[in-house]
Specification:
By secondary structure, this protein is of the alpha/beta class. The protein is built from 25 helices and 14 strands.
Length: 639
């Protein structure tokens, strides 16, 4: 391919990358507009727990509930009523009838209008042929007295009436028993108002595993909103969420066990606010502190606790109340975005491979583009929708690494300006990659937590591996740019040489960086957080609204800037190690965009703060390195 033609193809590739990044930024802006209008938060109390406190309070039950409402609580989560609870409260009577052979029979008799309605609407569906209406009640057969008393008969309408009378909205906690189906949802639909959150109390959702579609449709028809409890990992939640989208609300709760371990109230309040601000939680499910100290009244202590949570959420810029309907998707068509991103990531591949020859780069980039187009044609909502963002997440930080190497090859040793320029170019490519992976899933469903980015670990490991190989192949200081054939021959010769200390050092550093990234992705292993990092995190959280990632501020960005400064002054092995370590920051930025439920404004602010602080630490690190080199050189000359 002629040199002039190659230049035009390179310009076209740059244009394709910029176009994909621009469309992705537009999609991110559109999502930010929708997220900005979705800022109403429910402060929800557990009815059973707070009823105990209400009965102990000096104000009396109704007075205490009204005090909680004035403190800022907006809703109460009501559980289901068992027949035993209704009998103990005097709302029904359960009397034994003459047995039918071996089958025991009981008469369940309502004593007021509410219990009569509950039995009339629900008994036939709940007992699945084991109950039949009689004059004055229902005959139930086939259960012992204890088993009959343990049966839940649906939402506790007495509790619902009480909390509504105190001015609260209602959240329903439902049991996902084996017979939960669309028929049961219809039977309890009278207790489900429009936009009423429904939370399942067990480790699975209602209808799991074989009735998910019918349950989803029935819940939507009844007006329900599905509560997704963070970290609960309920079986069937992903499928039910997909069926109910966008009627979903994300729920954050702190369990009684966590509170009982001595969690400070300030920590609990901050955790709730962070969940709202950074992870789009819109229902805060509050459990009370059961032990408030010898000199404290538990009811009053928890009244103050609820007030602090509500006040802190308002101070963070959110409103309190029942959530509005989630905003509808707008902006650019998703398939159009996917095609643009496929072309952009293929163009990035062309630019990455260009040093190996324009023909080879063009052929491989064309193959990448055709493969992604085929994925879109075969499965636009499946393989195409997941593979194309993944390819962008890998190709763009690799493009950043290639850009850094290109700039460094043209600069002199220890050039601070070129070091910063190379870091800036790599960072721009990585941020663009983050936008390109997040743009196709900037819809309302993903905003509400439906679906996750797949391939997180692999998307982090591949750019680090590429950085190691690319530095060896295109290392600044090489004379000319080797072609693919010569690199293969050189690799073969290198493979036959004895292992030197710097080989082991570089491979070890790259391996440690990769393992560190994989273990720390998603902050899934808090044990790896050092004391220094924990202190730095707390300080940054107090100073900044959105804390940047420590592996960007303290490791990745400074290392990449220092790597450029070290070229020519330090051994190549150490420069290579610093470069690979610096790519940790680039991969981390892309990883930040993989948290699809995090508001895009939070992601961008966190990323930009990380860049600013990382630049400052990088410049300081470079000055220190320069002083070290100067001092070491002076001592060497003195000897």
């Amino acid at each position: 391919m002629a040199k002039g033609t190659s230049r035009y193809w390179a310009m076209a590739a740059v244009a394709a990358v910029l176009a994909a990044a621009a469309l992705s930024a537009w999609a991110a802006y559109d999502r930010n507009v929708r997220e900005s209008s979705y800022r109403t938060v429910e402060v929800c109390l557990d009815y059973d727990d707070f009823s105990t406190l209400a009965n102990q309070s000096a104000e009396g039950p109704l007075g205490y509930w009204k005090a909680l409402r004035e403190a800022g609580a907006t809703s109460v989560a009501v559980s289901e009523a068992s027949l035993g609870w209704l009998e103990d409260a005097g709302y029904i009577d359960i009397g034994q009838l003459a047995p039918d052979g071996p089958n025991l029979k009981y008469l369940v008799k309502p004593n007021d209008r509410i219990s009569a309605v509950m039995l009339f609407e629900r008994a036939g569906e709940r007992f699945s042929g084991m109950a039949r209406p009689l004059v004055g009640g229902y005959e139930v057969s086939g259960l012992s007295y204890e088993a009959l008393r343990s049966v839940n008969i649906g939402p506790n309408d007495y509790a619902v009436a009480l909390v509504k009378g105190a001015g609260f909205d209602v959240v329903l906690r439902l049991s996902a028993f084996a017979g939960f189906d669309e028929g049961w949802v219809k039977a309890i639909s009278g207790s489900i108002g429009d936009m009423t959150p429904v939370i399942f109390a067990e480790k699975q959702v209602g209808g799991f595993p074989n009735r998910m579609d019918g349950v989803a449709e029935a819940l939507k028809s009844a007006g329900a909103v599905l509560g997704q409890v963070e970290f609960a990992g309920q079986l069937g939640m992903d499928a039910l969420s997909a069926g109910m989208s966008p009627r979903i609300i994300r729920v954050h709760s702190i369990t009684p066990e966590e509170l009982a371990k001595g969690m400070p109230e300030e920590t609990a309040v901050e955790r709730f606010v962070r969940a709202v601000r950074e992870r789009s939680m819109r229902l805060l499910y509050i459990r009370p502190y059961r032990a408030s100290g010898a000199d404290s009244d538990p009811s009053q202590h928890n009244l103050g606790y609820v007030g602090k949570v509500a006040a802190s959420v308002k101070e963070a810029g959110f409103e309190l109340g029942r959530m509005d309907a989630p905003p509808h998707d707008t902006g650019i068509d998703r398939e159009t975005l996917l095609y643009a991103i496929a072309l952009g990531s293929s163009a990035a591949a062309y630019l990455i491979l260009l040093p190996l020859g324009a023909r080879l780069a063009g052929a491989l980039a064309a193959l990448a583009a055709l493969t992604q187009m085929a994925m879109m044609l075969i499965s636009p909502g499946g393989l195409g929708a997941s593979a194309i963002p993944f390819i962008a997440a890998v190709s763009m930080p690799c493009l950043g690494a290639a850009a850094w190497l290109s700039i460094m090859r043209k600069s002199g040793s220890g050039n601070m300006g070129k070091s910063v320029l190379g870091w800036a170019a790599a960072s721009a490519a990585s941020v663009a990659g983050g936008l390109m992976l997040a743009a196709p899933v900037a819809d309302t469903a993903h905003m509400l937590g439906v679906g996750l980015f797949t391939g997180v670990k692999l998307a982090q490991a591949l750019p680090l591996g590429f950085a190691l190989v690319a530095f060896w192949a295109l290392a600044p200081g090489r004379k000319g740019i080797p072609d693919a054939g010569s690199l293969v021959k050189e690799a073969a010769v290198l493979g036959m040489e004895p292992i030197r200390w710097w080989h082991a050092a570089v491979v070890g550093m790259a391996g440690l960086a990769g393992i560190y990234m994989l273990l720390r992705s998603g902050n899934s292993n808090p044990a790896l957080v050092t004391g220094f990092e924990a202190t730095a995190r707390q300080l940054l959280e107090k100073l900044l609204v959105y804390r940047p990632r420590s592996k960007e501020v303290f490791i990745g960005h400074p290392a990449l800037i220092a790597a450029g400064f070290m070229l020519g002054s330090w051994p190549v092995a150490l420069s290579m190690a610093a470069f690979v370590l610096g790519m940790v920051g680039q991969v981390s930025m892309v990883n930040t965009f993989m948290h699809l439920h995090t508001p895009v404004a939070a992601t961008m602010q966190r990323t930009l703060l990380g860049l600013a602080l990382g630049l400052a630490f990088g410049l300081v690190a470079s000055v220190v390195l320069k002083a070290v080199v100067k001092a070491a050189s002076g001592r060497w000359r003195a000897r």
